[in-house]
Write a structure and sequence with these properties.
This protein has 10 helices and 13 strands. The protein is α+β, with helices and mostly antiparallel strands and 433 residues long. Among the domains are: 195-270, Helix Hairpins (Orthogonal Bundle); 278-432, Heat Shock Protein 90 (2-Layer Sandwich). Strands 8-10-11-13-12 form a 5-stranded mixed beta sheet. A hairpin with a 5-residue loop joins strand 1 (73-78) and strand 2 (84-88). Helix 5 (189-238) packs antiparallel against helix 6 (242-270), helix 7 (282-292) packs across helix 8 (313-330) and helix 8 (313-330) packs antiparallel against helix 9 (385-395). The two termini are 79 Å apart. Mean pLDDT is 76; it is low at 33-37 and 422-433.
Amino acid sequence: MRSRLFWKVYLTIIASLVLVVVAGAVLLRLGPGGDDFGWNERRQHFVETYFASPGDREALAGDIGRLAEALRIDIGVFDADGSLIASAGAPFPEQIETLQRRRGLERGYFIAGTLSDGSSLVARFQEPVDGRDSRNPLIPISLAAVIIGLAAYPLVRSLTRRLERLRNGVETWGDEARLPRVAVEGKDEIAALAAGFNRAAERIERLIEAHRSLLANASHELRSPLARLRLAVDRQADRPSEALRAEIVRNLAEMDELVEEILLASRLDRLDALEHTEPVDLLGLAAEEAAFADLPDEAISVSGACGMVQGDARLLRRMIRNLILNAVRHGAPPIDIRLAQEAGTAIIEIRDHGPGLPPGIGERIFERFYRPQGASEAAGGWGLGLSLVRQIAEKHGGTVMLHEIAGPGAGFEIRIPLGADHDRFETAANVSK
């Protein structure tokens, strides 16, 4: 059974062809000339003048003979009763009734005029006149419409069959572990739609897999603070102490931070573009986050300068905070934060002076909940912090990478394009100086 879309498209084409034929018939009827070639009155006047004595049968036969030869037409004269009186050229039937068809004479014949005694002069061109032939023009139009209608059938069926396969692919979503793909056939809009469908399926698959991994890793990471919290609560109930209270608060803060990071990672996964942007001063954000790090002044420093970037201030603040927290937890002071700009790009470099990263870790450090092979639960992993740093940088059109440094410690470099307000910011800064 054919789909509704197929019949809608195909019947629309057929209806259009029928309208073309009907319009052609109407224009043929109403248009100038029609079957009479647009010169009825002049033709009748010529017939009345040329055949002045229709009663003279011999003179009439001579007149139509000369006229038929001069104009290269076949001519027949029928009396008022419809009987043939005289003819010239190709033979005519004995009665005019045999030429009559429904709403006119047989194809090719036309009444050239009426004589004074009521006789009818019927003529037929031996050759097409001015490129026209004597056939009804509706016949080739109708034939062309039929041919187009037949040719349109496989074309429309091919198009709608591809759409049906695409629809069937969408309907099977959720029936299998892996989202189905559809074949991309051709290079037209339907092929582009199929390619877009496959891209959407791939993206949704990645999102689902990322959320599954996030949920599995988050539940695993929550076990440790939950276990410590349960133990501390039990011990606090038996023997209250400030140390146990501090342990409970620390575990609650760790759980709160992890839940907050999970929610942020999930929100960033869904974002195609930033919801809110404004000119942001990265130097100001870095200085504020360094002050909030609860480290001595000599343990953390901020230097350099760069222009404004266009972005979400809260996300950029979280990006810088996570890098500082990573340096505090996995490195050692002093922590150096340096800002610069190069070729329309803001650069943030953060370096600590700790033991550095395990060999061969590379880009895996930016994976969610990455834990080096052989590392214990007590040693911990990198959680979501650096993964969020990369997500936030990419949402701002930037990049983050491990920065090669000489000496101990680890370094990270973030590059973000400067915003449209960069020149205006620099101008204002120079004026204030």
